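User: My instructor asked us to take a sequence, write out its structure as C-alpha cells, and then describe one feature of it. I'm not sure where to start. Here is the sequence I was given:
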Amino acid sequence: MVRKGRWIRAVLVAAVAMILLGPDADGRGGGGRPVGDKPSFTLRSHEPYTIGPKGTDTVPDLTPAFGNTGHVAVPHGVVMRVAVTEAAFTSADHSNCYYAKDRRSVFCEFPSAVPVGAGYETAESLPHATGDYSPVMGSYTYSVWPLGDPPAHTEDYKAHYERGTGSALGLRPVAAGTLKGGGELRFRTAGYVGRADWGIKGVRLRGRIGEYAEVDIPQPTRSSGPGPRRVRVELPEGTTLATPTPSERDGIPSEVDFCRRDERDGNIYCSHVNWNTLRVRIDRRVEGAEGKLSVPEPPEGDTHPGNNTAPLTLEITGTARAGHAVPPVPADPSVSSASGRDSGTRGVALAAVASATALALALASFFVIRRRRARRTAPSRRPGDRT
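Assistant: Let's start with the prediction itself. The C-alpha cells for your sequence are:
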C-alpha cells in the first residue's frame, strides 16, 4: 500500500510539472538542444561617412548585412529593424517592409531560412534618406532577430507602420567571415570638425497642480561652427509630458514646435531650429523634484563639458480651482501594451496552475474510487480463514 501511495504521488508530480513547464520540462528543447540556445547574428561594420559641402553630397545610402554565427539555424527567416537619426527615408519602396509615419525607422521581413554560417546583405540599398538640416550629424543603426521571436517591447509594426509598395526587398549571399559586428553607419557634414563648446541654459516651469504648464526651451549655445539640433529633456518627478492635440494647435504660430517623445528611444527632445515649447501637466507635488536639460558632446570633444547640462526646475503655485483641472494625460501606449503582455503571461500561468490542480484532483478521485470498488468486490473473510 505504501508503494502504491508513492507511485500515485509520482504520477501527480509529473503531471503538474508537465502542465506548468511544458513538454520541455526536462530542460531540453526540440531536437535535444538545451533551452536558451538561440541564433546569434553578426552585423556588418560600416566606416564613418563624411558628407561634403552643401549641394555636393548627401546622407549616404545603407546596405545592411548580417550573418548567422550561432549554433542554431533560423528555419522561418528573420526581421531586420533599421533606424536613422537626423534624417528620414524618402519613400516606402518595398512590400516586405513596414515604414514608420515619420520615415525614421523601418522593419523588413525576410521569410527564407538562414542556415548556420550563412551571411546575407540586402540586394539593394534601403530607400534614400535625406538630412533634417544642413549640416547633419546622425547615424543608421540596425538589428536582426528570428521572425516570430521579437525582443521584448518591440513595436507592433504591422499595426502602426505603413507597409511599403512595389517589389520585395531581397537578400544576396555574402561571406559571413567578412562581417565583424557593428550594425551602425555614422555620418556627418564636413563642418563638424574640431573641438567646440556646446551648452544649454536652465529654465523654470511654473504652475498649479492639475493644470498644464509651459516654458520655452532655449536654443543650445556654441562657441563656433554648427551646433546641436536637439535638446534632451528629463521631466521633474510629478509631471507628465502633454503635447497639444491637433485641435489645440489651431491658432499657434507655425514656427512654434512642442517638445515631444521619440518613439525609438523613449526620450523627450526639443528639436525645432527656431522655437521650442515644453508643455507638461503638473500631477502632484514632489519635494525637491528637478528635471534636466542636456545637449550632446561635440564629435571631437567639448572644451567646457560642465555647461552641457542645466536644471529644469519646477515651482508649484497652488492647486487648480474646482472645475479647472485638465484631464490626465493618456498613458504611454508602449506601457499599456507591455502591461497587457504581463497580464497575458500571468493569465497563462494561472490557467496552467488551474489545469494542473484539476488534473491532480481527477487522478486522486480516480484512485480513491478504484480502491473503494476493490474493497467492495473483495470476498469477506471469516474467523479462521487462512491469509
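For the description part of your assignment, you could build on this observation: The chain is about 20% helix and 30% strand. Try explaining in your own words what that tells you about the chain.
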